[in-house]
Amino acid sequence: MNSFEKYEKMISLEPFHDRSEMPIMPMMLATYGSLGDVSQKDILAPDPDNWIRAIENTIAKIGKPDVSMAMCPLDTTFVMGLPVRIPGRELGDNDLYQFVETPYFEDPSEYDRIMGMSWEYWYGEYIMRIQNPPFTSPEQLGQRFGQLGANMGKTIGYLISRGIVPDMESATGPIFDTLSMIRTMAEFTYDLYDEPEKIIDLIRKYQPIEDQKAVGMMKASGGRKLGIFAMRSSATFISPAMFEEIVWPTLKASILTYHEAGLISVLHADGNWLPMLKYFTELPKGCMHIELDGDTKMQEAYDILQGYQSIRGDVPATMLAYGTADEVAAYSEELVQMGMKGGFMLGSGCEVPLNAKVENVKAMMDVLK
Asked: What is the pLDDT, as a whole number, of residue 284?
């Protein structure tokens, strides 16, 4: 089976008859630079050519993955929606980029301002102001998104030419999670207790509009897999009760909107999602793929979601950096045995760390041979 066939079998939740049918994705962004002998400064260039070269160099060392990230590092740092320190600019040439999470607004009355001017305009104003140097016109912002689309198209074209499945063709950040980063986790948590109605009203009014924009963007590009970066909706950040009351109604509606448009939702689920996973069994089977890291117990997650939604994980970053190849191989083997009933992609727990040992990443790749 080629990588595209493996991916389709995984999404459709069919059991694997042989381990070679299971897809693998070592999630790598900056790590393609460290493993591929290209500096962090160079892989964060405005175009993805250096990053593509780093991917090719890494494949020569560890083997070809079935699935890979498709958005280059500089564009990824841009769409995260936080001020960022860039290697070669504020940092050393081989340092990892750094997000700077500081409160963008101090007064919860800003939620009233967002309601009045719309999320789209408020967020555009915010994104322009946090650039270094700040953008001075909406045209600059439009050009930046245009460049992002061109870069992603180039990377997707490269991946497909190498027989590798792009992990997603576009991505979106739910308003809830985006606000948590902009306001900062601590202040946003206070707001959830002090003024939850303002946040609930805001996301319920504007999230459906953002969902339709995401569908239109995917239709225009011909893409099928839409990333959802709900990174502040786990039990690591909010209580299960808050998830049920505030997050789940709009997140469920978003995923159903994408499903009805023929899209697959790829939920990047950092943190502990175990208390939340039962909700995803309410959705149409196979409508989404959930990327879990080491904070969610994989066996328990698989037991909950098997036959409902596919998952990916979860070789820990610490093991890839500080463990041995034998330890990585043994841990990966346990995951493979668990996932043979279907709906599972072997991979790293979130991103492979910058200091991962090449022999450890290769050990994870080789376990499916």
From this structure: 98
